[in-house]
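Let us practice reading a record.
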Amino acid sequence: MLRRTLLVFALSCALVAPAVAQTGTLEKIRRAGAITLGYIEDAAPFSFADAKGEPQGYSVDLCREIARGIGAQLGLPKVDTRWVALTIQNRLEAVRTGRVDIECSTTTWTLGRQRNVDFSLITFVDGGSVLTKVGSGLGRIADLNGKRIAVIKGTTTEQALRDSLARYSVNAQVLTVTTRPEGFKLVEDAKVEGFAADRTTLVGQVLAKSGGGAYRLLDEDFSIEPYAFALPSGDHDYRLAVNRVLARLFRSGEIAKVYDRWLGPLGPPSALLSATYFVQGISE
């Protein structure tokens, strides 16, 4: 009787297990034949909308590769990509609530954020810097004393900037903004002496707006920003599927094509970024 009961229990578990597995993001994508991707429109060269309103950039291209790779893993001939424009303020909430399946821009992976969302492998490593006008005389953190510095509210950059100013006993006035173009405009109009953000996106702003001739960055960074794609929390199978695609790109060297397409004009990958690619080329 006991053996018979155990057999019935085992069969019941076998029947229930597939149903549980089908409740995740991969099954959602399989049923819809589509993946919903979030991006930010003003984070060039990582994510932005082109003249036709189409998402473009380094992170966007990586997410397109992820969509194709997941389709192959699910045995689907094609996976449609549905793009949703997000803001820096709502990007993580969009992932947490299931509005998007993955967020493809410049989100820094932190332990605090991991309370609400999971993260992919690291996709890029940047550093926090300050954009100023040429001739401002600002070259180091210490030079910001008595200056007005804009930064996007609620970002890791804001906290890192405030921590750095406190560490060096620099008394600067920190003004918060909501977007990168807003911060850049304040510098352009001389309403602040500097705009703090991730170094590469600051360069992207300058190249897009002015050709890069009238601005410079500090000679030192005040933070390290490891970018990763935000994913739904606790969905291990989906995270593995995403990371399989990224690891293949790193392992095969195909990541170099994506880097050159969007970041090549800024110079080759740093030693730290090259090491990040190498270490994360995890084998199957």
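A brief commentary: The longest strand covers residues 118-133.
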